[in-house]
């Protein structure tokens, strides 16, 4: 049975067949809220229009997926959903937050805000091509949310678009180590670390064999040669596991998450397996 409220472009129906694509893959690009509901449960029908109203307020900054538990029992069991209604927020393929029961609009708004706080002013500046202004506004928003690493991630992405990769790297590099290990943040941090190395290396000779290998990886990334970059990073980690606090291996793992041909991914996976 389709969700009666799944009528907006950012409110869609989820199924067992599309869950990996619609929820897990999309959550690597931005937050996805999944509403687990049943047409036989009155509280679910009370919650649903509230969720849609909040989704409208956020205007697509968070994707809302309606998943009818009656139609997809095997998936629901695998996900461990036991009580309805339930709203879970997925980021980087994992559940990061949730609300159980018939939550108020204020509670739902707070849930969405924790994961998609970028203001309309930021989006408007970005859409009209003023990325520098968007980055400034996003940075101001991030200062108001010091405990939210994804606020820093949004600013970093805008800085990259504004051709300011050094500033983007410095911003992510200043995050606590546990935040830097988050999927989306880890991938961008590693990518920017390599770019920063390429930009800052200049004509100075490498200070060690590991440093030379890391710079070669940076140059390969600049040309989208991810297989070569991972080879150099694995070699760097083998040469000096503590180089830049273990950044070489983290960078290789982050690059492995980027889109690429199946053959290239298999090669990189084999390289990473050799370091386990």
From TrEMBL:
SUPFAM superfamilies on file: Thioredoxin-like (SSF52833)
Top-level taxonomic group: Bacteria
Alphabetized PROSITE patterns for the sequence: THIOREDOXIN_2
UniProt GO cellular component terms: cytoplasm
Example GO molecular function: protein-disulfide reductase activity
Name of a matching Pfam family: TPR_19
Boundaries of every Thioredoxin domain copy: 1-117
Listed InterPro entries: Thioredoxin-like_sf, Thioredoxin_domain
TM helices/strands, residue ranges: none
Cross-referenced PANTHER family: GEO12009P1 (PTHR45663)
UniProt protein name: Thioredoxin domain-containing protein
UniProt source species: Acidiferrobacter thiooxydans
């Amino acid at each position: 049975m389709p969700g009666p409220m799944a009528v907006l472009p950012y409110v869609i129906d989820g199924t067992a067949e599309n869950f990996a694509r619609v929820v897990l893959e999309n959550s690597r690009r931005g937050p996805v809220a999944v509403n687990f509901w049943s047409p036989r449960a009155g509280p679910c029908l009370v919650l649903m229009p509230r969720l849609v109203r909040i989704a409208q307020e956020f205007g697509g900054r968070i994707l809302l997926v309606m998943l009818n538990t009656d139609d997809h029992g095997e998936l629901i069991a695998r996900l461990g959903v036991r009580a309805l209604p339930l709203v879970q927020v997925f980021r980087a393929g994992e559940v990061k937050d949730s609300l159980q029961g018939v939550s108020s609009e204020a509670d739902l708004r707070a849930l969405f805000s924790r994961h998609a706080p970028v203001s309309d002013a930021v989006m408007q500046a970005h859409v009209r091509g003023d990325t520098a202004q968007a980055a400034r506004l996003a940075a101001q928003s991030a200062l108001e949310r010091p405990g939210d690493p994804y606020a820093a991630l949004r600013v970093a992405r805008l800085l990259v678009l504004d051709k300011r990769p050094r500033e983007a790297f410095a911003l992510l590099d200043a995050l606590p180590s546990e935040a830097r290990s988050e999927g989306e943040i880890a991938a961008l941090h590693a990518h920017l670390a390599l770019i920063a190395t390429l930009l800052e290396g200049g004509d100075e000779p490498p200070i060690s064999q590991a440093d030379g290998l890391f710079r070669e990886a940076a140059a390969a990334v600049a040309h989208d040669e991810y297989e070569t970059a991972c080879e150099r990073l694995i070699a760097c980690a083998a040469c000096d596991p503590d180089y830049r606090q273990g950044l070489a291996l983290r960078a290789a793992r982050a690059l492995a998450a980027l889109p690429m041909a199946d053959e290239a991914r298999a090669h990189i996976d084999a390289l990473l397996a050799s370091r386990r």
